[in-house]
Amino acid sequence: MNQMETERLMSMLSIYERRGREIGRQEGRNLGLIEVAKRMLEKGMKKEEVLELTGLSEEMLNELVRDYSLR
Length: 71
What we know:
Blueprint: H1 3-42, H2 47-54, H3 58-68
Helix pairs in contact: 1-2, 1-3
C-alpha cells in the first residue's frame, strides 16, 4: 500500500469514526427521551402532550406504551 492509499484509508476511517459517534449520541438522546416520555405517561400526561414535548414519533410512543403497558 502506497502513501496515497494509506492516507485515503485513514481519511475514510476518520469519517466512519465520526459517523459512529454521531449515531451513538443520537441513540443516547433517544433513550433519554424515551425514559422521560415513560415518566410523563406514568404521571398521567396525555399522549399528545408527551409527543409535543419530547418530539418522539407517534409510532415510537405507541411502542413504548405497548412495551411497558402504559396508558
